């Protein structure tokens, strides 16, 4: 191989190495297909049984209570499901993985909290309540913290992304004392300050990772396992 040809291949190799090094290490990549998740897929028959059990054991109680407190005499229809389009779910996964990587923390699980929209047109901060009185859920990513699996958000502390537990029950004074106590991984050493508001990005540098605001039904109704009775 001539010297000219050798130099050409060396330049080509150098260019490829530079291209790889410039790629965003936090970019989300989909996992390779490995079949269904083990022990997590249920049959249609089991889903139907569980759906029917909820219809028989929970719906009547919810309807009776909500109807009893409705001052206008309106009839309440309990939520049967909430849904997101697939693009939103993929975007959410990419988002929380990116934020977790910035804070150098591993996501353990996604925790689904059952919830209820308030019986109001607006939240205290002025945001519109999308589904007043309706049942819903929100999703919280979790991490390891002091031997426990806890939900977390991201805070910027001294210019550094830090994963902090959502449930922080210490006093405000303890919070001021512990705010700067972070280890080399960017995780908190002490859960010592009040939980911040769960807006997307706040003036204090808090980033929420909580997913909500899907579409709940009914109405409109498109139930896969039967009617709402």
Automatic annotation (TrEMBL):
Record flagged with keyword Signal: yes
Region of interest (Disordered), residue spans: 168-190
Source taxon at top rank: Bacteria
Keywords: Signal
Listed Polar residues bias regions: 174-188
Cleavable signal peptide: 1-26
Protein name: Lipoprotein
């Amino acid at each position: 191989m001539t010297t000219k040809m050798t130099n050409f291949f060396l330049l080509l190799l150098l260019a490829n190495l530079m291209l790889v090094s410039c790629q965003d290490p936090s970019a989300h990549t989909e996992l390779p297909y490995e079949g269904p998740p083990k022990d997590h897929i249920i049959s249609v028959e089991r889903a139907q049984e569980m759906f029917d059990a909820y219809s028989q054991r929970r719906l009547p109680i919810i309807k009776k209570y909500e109807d009893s407190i409705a001052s206008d005499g309106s009839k309440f229809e309990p939520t049967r499901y909430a849904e997101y389009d697939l693009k939103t779910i993929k975007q959410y996964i990419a988002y929380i993985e990116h934020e977790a990587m910035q804070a150098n923390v591993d996501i353990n699980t996604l925790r689904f909290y059952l919830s209820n929209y308030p019986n109001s047109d607006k939240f205290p901060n002025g945001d519109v309540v999308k589904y007043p009185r309706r049942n819903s859920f929100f999703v919280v990513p979790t991490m390891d913290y002091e031997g426990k699996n806890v939900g977390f958000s991201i805070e910027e502390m001294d210019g550094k992304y830090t994963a902090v537990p959502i449930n922080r029950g210490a006093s405000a004074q303890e919070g001021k004392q512990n705010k700067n106590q972070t280890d080399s991984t960017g995780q908190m050493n002490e859960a010592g300050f009040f939980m911040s508001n769960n807006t997307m990005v706040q003036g204090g540098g808090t980033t929420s990772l909580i997913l909500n605001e899907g579409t709940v039904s009914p109405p409109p109704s498109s139930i896969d396992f039967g009617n709402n009775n």
